[in-house]
What does this fold into?
Amino acid sequence: MSGSIFGKHFRVSTFGESHGRALGAIIDGCPAGIKITSDDIQIELNKRKPGTQNIYTARKEDDRVEILSGVFNGMTTGTPISLIIYNKDERSRDYDNIKNVYRPGHADYTYDQKYGFRDYRGGGRASGRETAARVAAGAIAKKILYAFNIDILCYTYSIGDICIDETKIDKSKVYENAVRMPDTQAAKLAKEYINSIRKEGDSVGGIVRCIIDHLPPGVGEPVFEKLEAVLSQAIMSIGATRAIEFGAGFDIANMRGSQANDNFRIDRHGNWEKGSNHAGGIGGGISDGSPISFRVAFKPTPSISLRQSTITNDMENTSIQIRGRHDPCIVPRAVPVVEAMTAIALVDLLFSHCLSRIDLMQKILL
Amino acid sequence: MSGSIFGKHFRVSTFGESHGRALGAIIDGCPAGIKITSDDIQIELNKRKPGTQNIYTARKEDDRVEILSGVFNGMTTGTPISLIIYNKDERSRDYDNIKNVYRPGHADYTYDQKYGFRDYRGGGRASGRETAARVAAGAIAKKILYAFNIDILCYTYSIGDICIDETKIDKSKVYENAVRMPDTQAAKLAKEYINSIRKEGDSVGGIVRCIIDHLPPGVGEPVFEKLEAVLSQAIMSIGATRAIEFGAGFDIANMRGSQANDNFRIDRHGNWEKGSNHAGGIGGGISDGSPISFRVAFKPTPSISLRQSTITNDMENTSIQIRGRHDPCIVPRAVPVVEAMTAIALVDLLFSHCLSRIDLMQKILL
Amino acid sequence: MSGSIFGKHFRVSTFGESHGRALGAIIDGCPAGIKITSDDIQIELNKRKPGTQNIYTARKEDDRVEILSGVFNGMTTGTPISLIIYNKDERSRDYDNIKNVYRPGHADYTYDQKYGFRDYRGGGRASGRETAARVAAGAIAKKILYAFNIDILCYTYSIGDICIDETKIDKSKVYENAVRMPDTQAAKLAKEYINSIRKEGDSVGGIVRCIIDHLPPGVGEPVFEKLEAVLSQAIMSIGATRAIEFGAGFDIANMRGSQANDNFRIDRHGNWEKGSNHAGGIGGGISDGSPISFRVAFKPTPSISLRQSTITNDMENTSIQIRGRHDPCIVPRAVPVVEAMTAIALVDLLFSHCLSRIDLMQKILL
Amino acid sequence: MSGSIFGKHFRVSTFGESHGRALGAIIDGCPAGIKITSDDIQIELNKRKPGTQNIYTARKEDDRVEILSGVFNGMTTGTPISLIIYNKDERSRDYDNIKNVYRPGHADYTYDQKYGFRDYRGGGRASGRETAARVAAGAIAKKILYAFNIDILCYTYSIGDICIDETKIDKSKVYENAVRMPDTQAAKLAKEYINSIRKEGDSVGGIVRCIIDHLPPGVGEPVFEKLEAVLSQAIMSIGATRAIEFGAGFDIANMRGSQANDNFRIDRHGNWEKGSNHAGGIGGGISDGSPISFRVAFKPTPSISLRQSTITNDMENTSIQIRGRHDPCIVPRAVPVVEAMTAIALVDLLFSHCLSRIDLMQKILL
It folds into this structure.
């Protein structure tokens, strides 16, 4: 598993299993001079905590993050920043029901196939808990984006067939409801829906929307590190994702060129603008200065209490009923994770972009 | 632009502008002992040539690839393989109509924003012609996949709203028609549709399907280089892509867990199988041994002969009518490019996977 | 500071300042199936602890390492291995004498120049204490080398002008004396010499020798990752190094070809051998199967109690007398660090080598 | 062989065998806006051509470099720059005397061990001819350094025991004599010495000195990409190198701290200076603004016409007398190669350094 480092310049290295000693991240390549405290990171981590509403699992994840290095007198020093979150809940539980059985929709089978054995405690590294390290690292990335006035807005677009009305969203509402929807009415319906699904012992999927504002034009490195390519890797590396689309997405396949092309124009005040944004703010893999927009599909939580047929690791047919309380919908908790990975990917590409013109670099070094 | 190298172990570095001297690729990290000739690569390159049918542009791209290094006596030596394709059509044309105007849907504007100026001849590096180097490198990657019995099948799934019937596809037909559809009837309709679109001076988009067969279980490197993450980067780095989905894709967001989970079972002959494949052959970012399946959306060709409003590089409003013959649909020519990028990404992940267990590595070195 | 990750396949990411909360390392790309305990790592860490003899600083560095992830039931799982060493001695001391003064021979000045300010507590990340993380990660690398029967022997070759007699070295003695010399007589002289130097308030440098045995032929990746190139980067990244030489080293510049060339021959038993080893076991950047040998020069400890003239960070002339007890010679403590970095570099190149021939890779995947 | 790409930001990928079709390089990550012509590169390539004096081989290497991409209207565009040098002398010669024999001091044996077979024509990729691609890429790197006023001076320090007098060197003389010595008298002696060595059918080694002037303070990325570490990898990756030392080098091992420490001081004009430069301009792996200085040892040319005992690839004892005219000393031709690799490594580290402080980056992006 040589894939736990993300980025070329701003390199995030994560570690940790669901029920191991700790999770965390090291960030190599964070510039010096950024004000940061562990509270700044804690705020982001708290966003992925289960809400107070009864739609969430009762497991108490009181994640406390600590900064172990790279920050001195409240300021990044330029040296690697190490972040750690100890697992409170490490005690050896009874894993007999999952130790020898491959849970459908989980990575139990593929980890055994790849490595010959697995850390079966709570899903090991394949647990959603791994994303805590992403969110912690993302908090640092967001601080950097703020220094360049770049904003990221993520929210739940739909849960099952309950979809928000995007014509009247209210950004400020996202973290005011447990489902992370910027539409109070849809949020109410979605909560009720999730509750009914849980009562049936089942789960449901959904879609997350992400919008990046004030990204300067020029970000993205053709031809393999185009903005949409790097964002796609970042986002599709999050567990339970199955699809991503930018701008008009799959609908563009059914458009005509005359319709899909976003026309440029200069408005009466002399400002550059586009007549539409089907491309999602990207041209040739490079940001054009308009908002970047993408949507991500998440599958339903694989852990359900309904009985499912499956196999043992001795390759015998069996069935399993997954005990414990599980989120019937992971989408709301995925929202800050999408935000974090977007921030991490953007910072790395921003740094690449700093190196794209000799005249700009001379401003720094001469 | 520091993004023209793909991969960690099998590293493909491409270069070349549409109307520069040449395009090409260097592959660093190709193992020794693979039989390869320039004909093997030429066969792949020919797949992206315009068809003989009148649906395609008349530009004669007689791309001839040459191997400059890394192959001796018909066998890869382990040293970097250099592939070159000279541009026949390099002569200085009249670019006055595009030199100072930003074509809608093209990368003219973003390149100028990023680099301060651009090579405006034929789109420079942002031209679809850049993909020739990808296809050439992909031919080597495919040779490696064959050595492990891994197959990739790509085809046109839809053009506009003309969609193939996937219940009765015939793989052998893909390269027998100009639209790369494995369904003769749909292919006929699609050709007629493209012709009518061209007559209107417009263009149309479509969807490509890719299926990977016989990929061994275990391929994919959590947590950032999961199989779907790396494939997403590889595919979304191709020009004109706007969306990618694996397995059930966006539809999974509306499923319940009891429906979305792919159950494992042992059949009467003792073989492992799954009841469904909504996950697209991937669990926890690692291949499970079943077919990998994904779909990619391509936008309509941005070059259309209908007059479009746009701006000049002096930021004045203007309009443009793009001269010359352009493909009204790039989807058929994208099919071998999707295949090539899939092959390149898979080889890189296969190589990572070779390093995942000490007992397997001892087989090589002891 | 984007340079705290070493390696391509076996990637070691370190963090930590001298007087911060903790130091540590994450290893991404360690194969599954290697038996390891924290004791295995502790043994290596103890090798860099000050000896009991009075030649060393009295600072009690009771470094205890903990494994936070990547090991389950005593076996590596293939996921990232996180190692942590908490600093016992984190309390805020009086740093007033070094806070505003640039100590000669230290990195105070260059860190301020690079980052605008620095963590001045005990040298921050530029402290020799940083090497604890290297040694911890190196312990894992050594476990991997053992799985392939590869041995590394490092020892002190000289301290000042006290040099061991390499014709009669006894490997078992290296860690039996405080100066890490495999020659009891030289060790005795060196200890006396170091003691006399300390009494004068001064310090002294020395040379470390490293010999790698049983490295299979074929290791090293031309043209930029040749065996000697990667080892040079690894070793010269250790603080206080100033020179490295392989085989005959600088002496080769004064040899003739007829003398310098190592002749191959087959001995009476049919075994391959060489008449000499001036090349240090490397041909064209690739191991030839004979012992790899190199020497590294370390400068004297920069912290001395003699008064030195220097400048303040306000760019005023001043002088400084460095308080506290410091090792008058860092060479003995550098020996396990050279060993660790050699192990880390070798593992990474061994892994690259596993991917050099298609027939060998088929052994793993078919 | 996955080692033919150097650098993280300014990435140089080289290819080519001695008697293959061509050699060349792709540079990914060169900023836009640098004026460059093929003549600028040709000037550098000519520096490694054999001199007109009879001390060099008669082989006519009329290397002509062509720029295939990445430059438009005489300016770099930010896209990959591809450089190609066709081999004139590709015709199939008679290689029977080296095809089945392992030449002492050459890489024939190790390449066969690594890859199972080799391109035996003229040494294949292990030939010194590979360095032509390094010099071509280095020419671009030097253009970038000039934009920041950074100078590199390389020259022959010694050939055998003929050493220049460094107290009275004249930079302008380096390329005025065939041995690349900035000391006319030593140059004359060295030429005579090389001629006498050649008459004996033997060869000789030597030492190259490199001095970097006007490098700003702050360059180098602790802890693994320190300035001396990256330079060491870059330089030790050149064929025939055996040792490198910075500043006082190996001599520092025998110094005391009071002697080795370079004291800082402010001179009467308020300028920063150092009392000595034993560290070679580097502190803690970071440049301090004073000149960087290192020396590199090169072994004698392995190809000599004296008969040498060796083995065949069937592992039988034999002897070989190497035909053809070979340089009896490669040191002079190594001088521009050391310069090129130094330039490439410095550019990559300069680019890293641009990303070290948020306030500096804001100058670019805000």
Residues 16 and 130 of chain A are 7 Å apart (CA to CA). The longest strand of chain A covers residues 151-159. The radius of gyration of chain A is 22 Å.
